[in-house]
Amino acid sequence: MDTRESKTPEEERDHVMGQRTPEDYDNPEPDEEQPEAKAPSHGLHRVLPIVIVVLGLLVAAMLIFSGGIFD
Questions:
Q1: pTM higher than the cut 0.70
Q2: Average pLDDT score over residue span 2-24
């Protein structure tokens, strides 16, 4: 993270020029500065629903067997 107060004239010009260029909506490519945007997901989207169902069944079993629901 850059914590400097001011930018050099060249950095300021690059920043302004970067804001002036329109975004390319036809070819949306991740920036070179964002390697995480290029990396594919590693299957977490498949594991999460399974974890939610297992935890729901666990909570339901705890409630039933502890006498919390059917007294």
A1: no
A2: 75
Exposure of 24 in the CB half-sphere (CA atoms within 13 A): 7
Alpha-helical segments (H) within the chain: 9-20, 35-38, 44-65
Please report whether residue 70 resides in a domain.
no
Q: 49 is in which domain, residue-wise?
A: 9-65
Answer yes or no: are the C-beta atoms of 33 and 27 closer than 8 Å: no
Q: Examine residue 60 and state whether it is found in any structural domain, yes or no.
A: yes
Q: Is the pLDDT of residue 9 over 80?
A: yes
The residues, any chain, with a CB within 8 Å of residue 31's CB and separated by 6 or more, are 37
Quick check: is 3 in a domain?
Answer: no
